[in-house]
Amino acid sequence: MVDTQAIADNERWSGVYKLLDRNSLIHPEFEPQEEIKEFIKSCKILVIGAGGLGCEILKNLALSGFSDIHVIDMDTIDVSNLNRQFLFRRADVGKPKAVTAATFINKRVQGVNVTPHYCKIQDKDEEFYQEFALIICGLDSIEARRWMNATLVGMRDEVNPDTIKPLIDGGTEGFKGQARVIIPGMTSCYECSMDMLSKPTGFPLCTIANTPRLPEHCIEWASVLEWPNKHGDRKMDTDDPKDIQWLYETALARAKQYNIQGVTYSLTQGVVKNIIPAIAATNAIIAASCCNEALKIATTCAKNLNNYMMYSGNDSVYTYTFEHQRKEDCPVCSNSATKLDFNGEKTLEEFMDYLKEKPDVQLKKPSFSLGGKPLYMQAPKQLEEALRPNLAKPLKELFSNGDEIVITDLTLPFSMQVVITLI
Amino acid sequence: MDAKTQKYDRQLRLWGNSGQDALESAHILLINATAVGCEILKNLVLPGIGQFTVVDQGTVTQNDIGSNFFLDYESLGKSRAERACGLLGELNEDVKGHWVAKDILTVLKENPGYLAQFSMVIASDITRETAEKIAALCWVNGHDANANPGSSSPAGKKRTAFVWVKTVGLVGAPRIAVPEHAIVETHPDNVADLRIDTPFPELSEYAKSFNFETQDGLEFGHIPYVAILLKYMEEWKQAHGGKIPSTYAEKNQLKANIRSGMRSADDENFEEAINSVLRSCQPTVVPSAIKELFSDSKCENLTAESSNFWILTRAVRDFVNDDSKSSGLLPLSGTIPDMKAQTDSYVTLQSIYKTKAKQDVQEVSKNVESLLESLGLAPGSISLQEIESFCKYSAFLKVIRYRSLEDEYRQPKTNNIASWLSDPDSVFPHYVLLRASDSFYDDHGRYPGEGENWEDDVDQLQANVNTLLQSWGIEGNTISKDLTHEICRYGNGSIHNIASFIGGVVSQEIIKLITHQYIPMDNTFIFDGARSVSAVFAV
């Protein structure tokens, strides 16, 4: 047993303690106090995701002096994680990421206690999230980020400052990434910036079926059209090399038929799993930026990022720091309805497809209602069947100009109020 | 898929097998196992560099384990080099780690040629005097070589890039020094080179093969936009004495002409053509940056020692200068974007561009062979694959010539410095403060703010700043005393988040240097973690 009492705190943390013990003339609001050091030791901090960013974030928090750290992750370790998720070894493949990461940090850094939660973020309730001083997200999914953001924004109670949970969010792709600080009610939130995302990738069904041109079209054909044809109800397992091999061979055969070059096993895997290139270096940069902000917010030793930093390493090194503005009609952090123009001759189904693709909406399975009356519902089954005919009706038959419709989606913990103008 | 491809899948999608081979043949030296040094190595061991060596004579202290993840409680009192090597080595069974528990100056005294075995030398927590010494040794090694990526460099063709990293409190500043760095695969966003303004004969023929009068709506809606653009551009040229649209109004007119040919608002192919008008009205020329390479003395005066890069540059230049073969243009990239089209017409168009690109590669290959012969080098010593890649990216080639540390100190770019300091939001004052901190060290044998009475150092450091500014001919209080105070507040402390941030940046740059892919920064990056802003300066 290591005697943690023996650790000479002051020497060990001398770098951070200089920041906390000494005043700053560029940030005169900061007042050094012993309580701040106690606070970072005792406050609870939550890390969402124990992947590429998560491993880095856990390490950085532990070495910043935070000692009550929680981590949530629902995934298990895959061999392709090992090129960057440095808390995992080959022997750990198949084990839960949250548990393995927590065990590693607890062993390496004396006096730190990381508590793992091997589950989905949606499995936890507001009471759980309420316990934390701040939350750092290292996720690769838009859906999970939206859920977390909407939950934390929804928890804010104006009269009780303890309900305001700063959310620090990081993301990477290849040599690029971004870090941002979201303070519910004060800064823009994740939902406010949905329009910065690119259109969800996907190819028109008619191209896949009739006029393939790219190797990607052949792969989509194999996975979207041929798979259900040949395998019936059996769901594709994109983690099973046998299924990927089948898709690869099927796509390759179609590519040959159409004289299309470039179908490879690796591309097949990339397309069906929507793989984003990822390296340790970029995760290190973005995670460090997030944790630098976490330390600044928790201690007030310097001004925190307001509120967005982009990083790009493709051509030289370039960062851009700016204040992302709140969206006046944000469905999450504002009270006003979103305004939308749409052709009244088009059907509800066409409207639904449009909302699925629109970058700032990106709904998966939307349901619609008007004045409390359902127009179309994804579930339960009977209601869905009863309302399905509405999908084929033009919008002008379903509602009139200026109506406020409510759109919900099972994957999102909020509803969108949309005032529609028929054109 | 083999085990290694599985493990490295997410990075192979960025730099491919050639980049990975280059990484696996690299041997990297880390001077001093500091937090930032170990973070850099972590990000290089994980993606699988070949070998690394840690040189450090120190023993592990409490301060080390508070900011360095690769030194732990068990390491206290033991050799920093040995422990860091051990804990970093655990990250990847394919990487070989070595350690030397000595000071780098002692190592160099015992073996003056020590650095030549490394592809890259990274140093942190060294004095300016030591940095200058190491930089000078690396610079000599780097001069006689510009290693060809992927190929194992033959004996005598060593290249040693040097990276000196400073981190102080919330500030970090890495500096890269290598005489010359040439890149073929710069990974531009778009390599499509459609030549709508100057179509080659096969392309013009293709455009004419489409029937714009067809009654078949499906056929009409699938005429590839390249054919649409070529048709309307040709009509424009005939009406305008062979000239393409050059003014904004003319380009808009061409857009309007195309729009008038649409049959319904749903003709996506016409929309694609309209959206490409501005790009297509940029005349196809050899970019000025590439012309500069053509007139570079390394391109003019090839020797048997010339790197493949310069031999290929010369071969492409000779191709461009032979108007009958190239029409004065670079080799065609041969890549086209996706567009609304029937499979057959798309595949045909693709093969027209690919065939022309292949012809250009053949011509360049002939030039390469005759150059190799005239230089007395083995025929075929530059592979077809390398020539193809060079031709494909020839419009985006890049050569960076870094300034040496010696030039930075002896021949300061005073005009640039004055202009960098004139921007009130610039992070450049931190460069000045870190330089002044080196002078402070020369005077006092310690860095500003290290002791208890840290505020006493502010005036002294400010004096060092002023001396430095005066030496550059810059008058007045350009550096705020509040910022000098802030540097003393940091007291040369190591903050893990900053070490990790800078470690990430430096390892990205090292990957770019080793793989010869993407474009590394030139030459000093400065990050101010208090404001979360950064910039790059070629000091």
TrEMBL record, chain A:
UniProt key word Hydrolase: no
InterPro entries, per the entry: E2-binding, ThiF/MoeB/HesA, ThiF_NAD_FAD-bd, Ub_act_enz_dom_a_sf, Uba3_N, Ubiquitin-activating_enz, UBQ-activ_enz_E1_Cys_AS
Coiled-coil boundaries: none
GO MF assignments: ATP binding; NEDD8 activating enzyme activity
Catalytic activity, EC: 6.2.1.64
Highest taxon listed in the record's lineage: Eukaryota
Protein name stated in the entry: NEDD8-activating enzyme E1 catalytic subunit
Species: Entomortierella chlamydospora
TrEMBL record, chain B:
Annotated CDD domains: APPBP1_RUB
Pathway: Protein modification; protein neddylation
Any one Gene Ontology molecular-function term assigned to this protein's record: NEDD8 activating enzyme activity
GO cellular component terms, semicolon-separated: cytoplasm
One Pfam assignment: ThiF
Entry keyword RNA-binding: no
Keyword field: Ubl conjugation pathway
Alphabetized InterPro entries for the sequence: APP-BP1, ThiF/MoeB/HesA, ThiF_NAD_FAD-bd, Ubiquitin-activating_enz
GO biological process, one term: protein neddylation
Every THIF-type NAD/FAD binding fold domain range: 8-517
Highest taxon, organism lineage: Eukaryota
Family of the protein in this entry: Belongs to the ubiquitin-activating E1 family. ULA1 subfamily.
PANTHER family: NEDD8-ACTIVATING ENZYME E1 REGULATORY SUBUNIT, UBIQUITIN-ACTIVATING ENZYME E1
Role description: Regulatory subunit of the dimeric UBA3-ULA1 E1 enzyme.
Name this protein carries in UniProt: NEDD8-activating enzyme E1 regulatory subunit
Lineage start: Eukaryota, Fungi, Fungi incertae sedis, Mucoromycota, Mortierellomycotina
Name of the gene this protein is made from: NAE1
